[in-house]
Amino acid sequence: MNLQHLRFFTALARERHFAAAAEACGVTQPTLSAGLRALEQELGKRLVERDRRFIGLTEHGQAILPWAQQVLGSLRGLTQAAGALSAPLQGEFRLAAIPAALPLIGPFGAALMAQHPGLTLAVHSATAREIARGLAASAFDAGVTYLDHEPPADVLAVPLHAERHLFVARRGGAFDRHRAATWAEVAAERLCLLHQGMQFRRILDREFAARGLAVSPAAVADSYVSLLALVRTGGFGTVIPDAYADLVAGQDWAVLLPFSAPAPDRRMGLVVVNRDPLGPLARAGLQAAQAAGAGPDSAL
């Protein structure tokens, strides 16, 4: 089986566009299409629904996709392992992080590249569920996600941070003289929050519900930058992870408050697939996370 044809197939499944997949593979679109047809002929199954454009994967295409991803991931690990003993690590370290953890990437990235100057770091923002799927499919070398709430299965983890909630309001309002905010006060505000597909929002809703409260935000978004922009323009409050505190503290427009009865801390950490043997990039990620300021955790 031609591995390049598998690369074409997984790239098309990822990009969902023939021209974009060809560009990602560094080939022309006719070359990619020919490779896909050759793969279909070899397997005796139609893998891609197409009508001058990509429509989707067939049932057979969906079935073989995780296997194709695993084959290519294993090949990448084999290549890395073969060169790891004779030369410094080279290439791209693919890291996925939930939005709540993106501020943690700085210390981790600095540690990783100090230990392995030959690596480049590619950071992707993803949901916790996307990270779990991507790790299983070898699409990512590591992820940064919650370790206690909906954790991915069968991983090795290094804690990086214990998260707390912070309330953000615009200066010039009722919270200017507050030292902390209550859950009831926050629930009564006109809020902008992450949408419910985001794990931080699901955790937040659970904390409100535990106190007999419910929130119905006036605006939702999928990034903290959008939420903070809405607060800054006035009329909104929001809740953010404390990892973003350094990015907000000192802003003349912002009031940043802890909760007077805080929820339990939630651990965030780096996770890699628990494989034996552990690949060189996964091992490098764990070592960098430990150097960034935390000790190793047991497999979840």
What is this structure's SSE topology?
Blueprint: H1 3-15, H2 18-25, H3 29-43, E1 48-50, E2 54-57, H4 59-84, E3 91-97, H5 105-115, E4 119-125, H6 128-136, E5 142-146, E6 155-163, E7 165-170, H7 183-188, E8 192-194, H8 199-210, E9 219-221, H9 224-233, E10 238-241, H10 245-248, E11 254-258, E12 266-273, H11 280-291
Parallel strand pairs: 3-4, 3-5, 8-9
Antiparallel strand pairs: 1-2, 5-12, 6-12, 7-10, 7-11
Helix pairs in contact: 1-2, 1-3, 1-4, 2-3, 5-11
Protein name: LysR family transcriptional regulator
Pfam families: HTH_1, LysR_substrate
GO cellular component, one term: cytosol
Describe this structure in words.
With 300 residues, the chain is an alpha/beta fold. The protein is 42% helix and 21% strand. It is built from eleven helices and twelve strands. It has helices at 3-15, 18-25, 29-43, 59-84, 105-115, 128-136, 183-188, 199-210, 224-233, 245-248, 280-291, and strands at 48-50, 54-57, 91-97, 119-125, 142-146, 155-163, 165-170, 192-194, 219-221, 238-241, 254-258, 266-273. The strands form four sheets. The chain has a five-stranded mixed β-sheet, with helices on both faces. Strand 3 (91-97), helix 5 (105-115) and strand 4 (119-125) form a beta-alpha-beta unit. The longest helix is centred in the N-terminal third of the chain and has 26 residues, at 59-84. The radius of gyration is 22 Å and the shape is globular. Mean pLDDT is 88; it is low at 294-300.
